[in-house]
Each structure stands twice: as C-alpha cells, then as structure tokens.
Amino acid sequence: MEEQKILTGKAQWLVFKRLLHYLVPHKKMVFLALGLLALTVLGDVLGPLIIKTFIDDYLTPGTFPQGPVIGLALGYLFIQVSNVIISYFQLLKFQEAALKIIQQLRIDVFTKVQNLGMRYFDKTPAGSMVSRVTNDTEAIKEMFVSVLIGFIQSAFLIVGVYIAMFFLNVQLALMTLVLLPLLFGIMYFYRKYSSVFYQDLRERLGQLNAKLSESIQGMGMIQAFGQEKRLQDEFNEINDKHWAAGRRNIKLDGLLLRPAIDIVYAIALIMLLSYFGVMSFSNTVEVGVIYAFVTYVDRFFEPIGQVMQRLSIFQQAIVAASRVFALLDEEDLAPRQENKLGTISSGKIEFRDVTFSYDGKTDVLKNISFTAEPGQTVALVGHTGSGKSSIINLLMRFYEFTEGDILIDGKSVKSYSSNELRSKMGLVLQDPFLFYGTIDSNIRLHNRSMTDQDVRLAAEFVQADRFIEQLPDAYSQAVTERGSTFSSGQRQLVAFARTMATDPKILVLDEATANIDTETEVAIQTSLEKMRRGRTTIAIAHRLSTIQDAELIIVLHHGEIVERGTHQQLLSKRGLYHKMYLLQNGIVE
C-alpha cells in the first residue's frame, strides 16, 4: 500500500503551476475564450448601470421621453442577447481546450506506464494505477472544465463589479473592501484542511479499485476456496473508510462553503443598507444608486460563492494531479539501452559473473556464468526460488543488473536497441497472455508487414492450425480478455505461433509445455525441435524429460550454479540433478 503524503500549500501551488503548463499549446484558444469572457463581464457590469440610469433619470422624475427610454431598453436587450451568444462560444472554446488538455494528459500517463520497469509493477497494485489513469485524470478534467473557467470568470466579474462600485460611490466601495480579508481567511482554512481530507479520499478510492481488480482477476480462486465472505469483508472495510473520508469532506464543505459566504453576504447587505439609511437623514439618496449597489453586491458574492463551491472540485483535482504527476515522475523505468547500433546475427549468449538482487539486499543470482553457443539449447533446472526465472528476466531486459555482464554475439545486451532485442528474441511463458481481439491479431500482434500467409504458416509450424481451423470463425475467432474461452493448451499453442511468426534468433522458453496435456505435448515436441533448430534456446524446465537432449543443462540452487553438463553427465555425477531425476520418475534407491 502506498504511503500517503500530505500536500503542503507550496506543493499544491507547484502542482497547479504544472497543470497550467498544459495550457501553453492551446494558448490561442484560451486567449480567444478570455476575450469573449471579458465581453460577457462588461455586459454584466453595464446592465445594472442602465437600470440605475432609467430609475434615477426617468422613473423617479416620472418623465418618459420615447427616444431615450427606447434607446435604454434596446441597449439593455442587446447586452443580454449578446451575452448569451458570446457566453456560448466562450464556454465552447474553454471546454475544447480543457478536453484537449486531459486527452494529452492521459496519453502522457499511459505512455509513462508503458515505459515503467517491472520493479514498479512488482510493488504497485494494478487497481491503483488504473485509478490514476481514469479517476484522477477525470478529476483533473473537472478542474479545467468548471473550476478554472469559473475562477477566471469570477475574477473578471469581481474586478468589473468593483470598478463599477467605485464609479458610483468611492466611500462605499472602500467599505466593502473590509470584507475581503474575511473571505480570504475562509478560503485559506478550507484549502488547508480540505487538502488533507481529499488526499485521504483519493487514496481510499485507489484502494477500492485495487481490491476490486484483485477480486475480478482471482475470481476463480476466490470461489474455489470459498473466500467470498473474506473478500467481501475486506472490501467493506475499505469502503467504510472511503465513506468516512467522504463524510469528513461533506462536513467541511457544509461549514466553510455556502453557509460561511452567506453570513458574509448578509453582513455586506447590512453595512450597505445601514450606510444608505444614515445618509438619508442628511442627503437625498437616489433609488437607482441603491438598486445598483445591491445588485453589484449580489453579483460580487455570487462569483465568490461559486468559487467556494468550486474549491471542493479544485482541491480534489490538485490531489488527483499530485498522484498523476507522481506517476509521471516515477524513475523506476524499464532498463535503458546504451548504444543502439548493435545487430544480433548468430545469437550466442554469454553470462559473465552476473549477480542480481530485486530489493538491493538479498542476491537471487550469485556469480552466474555460462555460454550458449549459436543453435545450442541450454536448459535451466532447479527447485522453486533457485533463480531460473531471474536469469530469463535479465536476458530479456525486464530488470537492470549492475554486477557482471550479459553478452549477445560478443556485445553487452545493453548495447542493443529495444527493437533489436525484441525482434530477435522470442519468449514463451508458462502462462501465456492473449490480448482482446482475434486469433489472427494475437499471432500477428499488429505487425503490418506480416501477411495472412505468414500467420497461417506460423500456426502450422507449431500445429496450432488443427484446433484453429475447427473454430467457427477460424483465424477470425474472437478472443475475450486473457483468452479465457480457450483451454490452457490452446492458449499456449497460439503463443508458440506468435513467437515463431517473428522468426527469432534466440528462443526463451519458460516451461512452455507445462500447461499442455500429454497428447498435445507429444504432438508439439517435433515442432519444438524444429523451433530450436538453428536458434539459441534458453529453456526453463521443471519436467526433466523435456530437456534431456539439451547440449547444456545448468542446475541452480539458491541462486548459484551447482552443476552443469549433459543429461548423462549429470546423472553420472549423482548430485542434485540425479536426485531430482529419481524423484520425478518415482525411483527409490
């Protein structure tokens, strides 16, 4: 579980500035929207002045000259209609800019996820990452769509209203400035405490997503072992904490948002009416001025109230953005390649004194050294946790190593580009992963240079065509998420075809026949022999019967090579390999 970090005021400001940088590519659209916004604010300010002129100059004296009165009426109507039209285009431009920003932000986040190293995925729940890409970016979108637009509009309107108030009565306008410190104080306390509560709320939401993701992916095991009640209790516990965090937010909103602003608004009205009441004892007070001031005070507090209401969304967005930026700033990237000029030709592999640790404390590989000549098969055997998969992880560049070196064709594996490594190395895992799509797309993997004939030849090569052509739609048969509608053996055959379609120089097999039934395994052994022919093969094997013909068998124990040789050589040594062989074959000495 990720550690929660409370955002300070400075940290929130830095997050906000970083969000504003996403506006730069759309500055023309934003400036156009701001210009239109200024026009609507001008209309909001001029409206009460027209009404004030009508009341004081025509309604109070009781004179209604046709020309001036009609002119005022038409002017007021023109302003209102223009405001509606301009507001539409202003909001449209702001919304377009906001949606483009979120579109780019989601692309940035998804691209970052694709470039993260396996270490990050080892320590981060999948649901938490999904929450950042979906829920958190959606919260940021709300900030751009409603909050930022609302803040700018409110700022324009407040400035416009104050200019109009100073134009009408300087003394009264100065009196209303006294209320600003009180309003800023409310905003300060709300920002200070709401950031803590919203941080907790977003973390709880991430935990909910993580638990939901885990439950869906492991539903088979949950039902098989009767763990439904336990998972429900754990989900309910997280959900209760999410509810409690949400309730704290609501209580804070209910106290410091609309009610607090309404009290300040009431104080402003009392001050305004008291001032005019006192003034009426010694001077004549124009009704139009009273109307204009009351209207302006109302229009001043209306955006203030909107700002306070939107502060809730703003705080959620800042907290969400901090989580997204934390992902974008993650430095645990996939291993980098140093010089991208190397080309793999023959496929010779050499491990030289490689020592590796996942956590930086416990070595899972210790001084591993061996050579796989071009066209040879090197098998890795050993008990669980002996380091077999770690060797493959380093060879495939899933993890970075710092001690020793791994060479391919005499050059460090770090010196090849990612594309060169991936195109010349074929990997088949024990539990193959199929993508949503079709059989064809899973073999082709969207390689546009691969023809339909290439796909079919790859399937025939591993004898996957037998079951594929019996499907209703053959190679166009739909594949659901993770290929759940196919058997383990069928998924493995598709994975074999996918690997052979790229014609790799190096073949990496992680117990590739473990999930295939005996009949199917016998049928594809010939295919496996053809696959290995002319290719350097590194194979992890749990069943020793599948690798007896390997040119080199390496026996691992606690991260070290304890034996090496051919099948017969290792049996004659009567060591660990000999014991494993006897155990698997049920032979008791």
Automatic annotation (TrEMBL):
Keywords: ATP-binding, Membrane, Nucleotide-binding, Transmembrane, Transmembrane helix, Transport. Residues 31-316 form the ABC transmembrane type-1 domain. Residues 349-583 form the ABC transporter domain. The keyword tRNA processing does not apply. It is found in: Cell membrane. It comes from the Bacteria. One of its GO terms (cellular component) is plasma membrane. It is a multi-pass membrane protein. InterPro entries: AAA+_ATPase, ABC1_TM_dom, ABC1_TM_sf, ABC_transporter-like_ATP-bd, ABC_transporter-like_CS, P-loop_NTPase, Type_1_exporter. The chain crosses the membrane at residues 29-50, 70-91, 144-164, 170-190, 255-276. Its main location: membrane. CDD domains: ABC_6TM_TmrA_like, ABCC_Glucan_exporter_like. Pfam families: ABC_membrane, ABC_tran. GO terms for molecular function: ABC-type oligopeptide transporter activity; ATP binding; ATP hydrolysis activity. PANTHER family: ATP-BINDING CASSETTE SUB-FAMILY B MEMBER 10, MITOCHONDRIAL, ATP-DEPENDENT PERMEASE MDL1, MITOCHONDRIAL. This is ATP-binding cassette subfamily B protein.
